[in-house]
Design goal:
Blueprint: E1 16-24, E2 28-35, E3 40-47, H1 54-70, E4 79-84, E5 90-95, H2 102-105, H3 113-132, E6 135-136, E7 145-147, E8 153-155, E9 162-163, H4 192-208, H5 222-231, H6 244-253, H7 265-278, H8 307-312, E10 318-319, H9 338-346, E11 360-361, H10 380-386, H11 394-407, E12 437-443, E13 449-454, E14 463-468, E15 478-480, E16 484-487, E17 498-504, E18 515-518
Parallel strand pairs: 10-11
Antiparallel strand pairs: 1-2, 2-3, 3-5, 4-5, 6-9, 7-8, 12-13, 13-16, 14-15, 14-17, 17-18
Helix pairs in contact: 3-4, 3-7, 6-7
Region (Disordered): 289-308, 406-443
Protein name: non-specific serine/threonine protein kinase
Organism: Cellulomonas terrae
Length: 520
């Protein structure tokens, strides 16, 4: 075992008195100092003398700028000052978080489901705030979540962060146990959904007391962990008090393919809120800035919410609908062509793609993945009763598009979602179409893969829309008549091939959630 190195010499900083070492890192050490004016304890992160190349200096400066940009958030560590010491080492003066961080806690104590949900929502709010500022964290893990004096999780260490859309695929370092598959390949690519994966992996660690793909008592080398992250299903947390809905939430957030994950950290936070509601726990508010043109909803006073929530947050209130409602098909306007008419009577209107902060709806289980509507004052009661019947997953529209294009006599390629009529009045309620079951793939001698599945509720005229899942981008969908499909060897070049399949009824309705399966 490699001997633990000694801490570097703490620099002499005018106006600060050195107290003790807080932690050691690969490129920097963290010390506790007493600031003289204003008098307070602060954490000072100092670059190691042997790490002063231009690249490290740039990342250190970037970390200071990014954290300062986000320091207003209650779950992101506050930066007070940045400068260069007399010995030439750059340093950051930060908020000192005195309580044990998540890295110390998750292996040593059993963190309750309620606390894990609360921490997850607050962290998701911090990650969403960073994303809205155009910043990817890229190294979310328990060791980078400290705990403030008031018990709040505080995200830190933006040292390898990137701006979205500019070099987001390049990575200079990562922590394998919490990294998504797309960042572990030879040519890593990632976006906001990569942070979603790492956020969920961190929540999983709090519940399981171990990293997501760690085998207790087994071999857990870096190579073995990478192989499990890329191929193995997410293991259960092993706790009886973790509800199935929370396990399913983590599985979706940590899906192998980014397209199957939650699209944003805010969506993860809302899903965690739904689990809180299902467990009859107090709803943890989302710490997100309100958009200028949206009037913030007034949260109802509750004895369950501590004063810290009331004084540090501008909260987004959670509204429970009076009764669940099923998705409602949309009728095309009179005089529309045949293709538009068919689309109108078959598919429900999708929610606008642009996500804006607003009231969060606690939806019934069958609609908990749907995004919330933005409500105006004076319509909240009406929306609480009917809005859950007007939202639908964008995935349903994308899959249904392929079926419509084929039915209209085209080549079977997916149709753009903009082809659907979205503002026609509702005409009735459609029964839910089940997902295929028993989906499995078997590799053949020629290298191709044959997938088969079952239709749990077969009806006359049923067909199937399917596509090969890709690590990035949406799958290309096609419509077929039989419950079997072959992926040619030319497309089945990876060790594991995965597809998704949905049932298409004769009236063009599709499965609410596609089935997914991989080679066995």
């Amino acid at each position: 075992m490699t001997a633990r190195r000694e801490a570097s010499t703490p620099p002499r900083l005018p106006g600060y008195e050195y107290l003790r070492v807080l932690g050691l890192g690969g490129f920097a050490d963290v010390f506790l100092y007493q600031q003289e004016l204003p008098r307070r304890e602060v954490a000072v992160k100092v670059l190691l003398a042997g790490s002063l190349d231009d690249g490290v200096r740039r990342r250190f400066q970037q970390e200071a700028n990014l954290m300062a940009q986000l320091s207003h958030h209650p779950s992101i560590v506050t930066i007070y000052h940045a400068a260069i010491a007399a010995d030439g080492r750059p340093f950051l003066v930060m908020e000192y978080c005195s309580r044990p961080g998540l890295a110390e806690r998750y292996r040593q104590e059993r963190i309750s489901v309620a606390e894990a949900l609360r921490i997850g929502i607050r962290l998701a709010s911090a990650v969403e705030t960073a994303h809205r500022a155009g910043i990817l964290h890229r190294d979310i893990k328990p060791a980078n979540v400290l705990t403030t004096d008031f018990g709040w999780p505080a995200l830190t260490d933006f040292g390898i962060a990137a701006t979205t859309g500019h070099g987001a695929g390049a990575t200079v370092g990562m922590s394998i146990p919490w990294s998504p598959p797309e960042l572990l390949g030879e040519h890593p690519t990632g976006d906001e959904r990569s942070d979603v994966y790492s956020l969920a992996a961190t929540i999983y660690s709090l519940l399981a007391g171990r990293t997501p793909f760690e085998v207790p008592g087994g071999q857990n080398t870096a190579q073995q962990l990478v192989a499990r992250i890329e191929r193995a299903p997410l293991p259960p947390t092993g706790r009886d008090d973790v509800p199935p809905s929370l396990q399913e939430l983590l599985e979706r957030a940590m899906a192998k393919h980014p397209t199957r994950r939650f699209a944003s950290a805010a969506a993860v936070a809302r899903a965690l809120q739904q689990v809180e509601a299902d467990l009859r726990l107090p709803i943890t508010p989302l710490d997100l800035m309100d958009a200028p043109d949206v009037e913030p909803a007034e949260p109802a006073p509750s004895p369950d919410l501590d004063r810290e929530d009331a004084t540090r947050l501008r909260s987004i209130v959670t509204v429970a609908p009076a009764a669940p409602a099923a998705p409602v098909p949309v009728q095309a306007p009179p005089g529309a062509d045949e293709a538009t008419r068919l689309r109108g009577v078959t598919y429900v209107a999708p929610e606008p793609a642009t996500e804006r902060p607003g009231p969060v709806l606690v939806t019934p289980p069958e609609l908990r993945d749907a995004e919330p509507e933005t409500v105006q004052r004076g319509r909240a009661r009406l929306v609480a009763g009917v809005v859950s019947g007007l939202v639908v997953l964008a995935a349903v529209v994308a899959i249904g598009a392929a079926a419509l294009r084929d039915a209209d006599g085209t080549d079977g390629n997916p149709t753009a979602t903009s082809d659907f009529t979205q503002d026609a009045p509702p005409t009735g309620i459609a029964d839910a179409v089940p997902s295929p079951s028993g989906l499995q793939g078997t590799r053949q001698a020629d290298g191709s893969v044959v997938f088969t599945w079952d239709n749990p509720e077969p009806q006359t005229g049923d067909r199937y829309v399917w596509g090969v899942l890709q690590a990035t981008g949406e799958p290309e969908l096609a419509l077929i008549d039989t419950a079997m499909v072959t992926v040619p060897a030319a497309q089945a070049t990876t060790a594991e091939v995965c597809i998704e399949v949905a049932i298409v009824r004769a009236d063009r309705r599709v499965s609410a959630e596609p089935a997914q399966g991989c080679t066995s």
